[in-house]
Amino acid sequence: MLTLTSKIKFVKYFRDKFLGKNLGIDVCGVVECTVDFGVVETIDVADDKVSVWGTEAGVFWINLNDILVANYKPREEDVCLLIEAKNNVEVRFKIV
Asked: Residue 87: left if φ>0, alpha if ψ -120 to 50, beta else—which one?
């Protein structure tokens, strides 16, 4: 689980890196999927959850308490952020 300082760093990084950019998301867990989210319009934080809103009315939430590790410099070339979360879930964020 992330500390309060780590949560603040995560939200700041997320806003700086992805706001106004076209975001791609790869989720690897029980079910694997790839999502072309579109352009990130708004990023809100409330109750330890980050909500990311796209220009095409898409939204997804990240529960900060479920994040075990946030890797800001992953080895994969096109990945900007790699999250390891509870239940053996990995999420890769890309600017597409």
From this structure: left
Cβ–Cβ under 8 Å, residues 76 and 60 = no
Q: Is the dihedral of CA 48, 88, 75, 41 positive or negative?
A: negative
Q: pLDDT band for position 43 (50/70/90)?
A: very high
Alpha-carbon distance of 29 to 91, in angstroms, equals 9
The whole-chain average pLDDT of the chain stands at 91
CA distance 94 to 59: 16
Taking the C-alpha atoms of residue 22 and residue 40, their distance in angstroms, rounded to an integer, is 6
The 49-54 sheet, strands edge to edge? 59-63, 49-54, 33-46, 22-28, 89-95, 81-85, 67-71
What pLDDT, on the 0 to 100 scale, is given for residue 2?
84
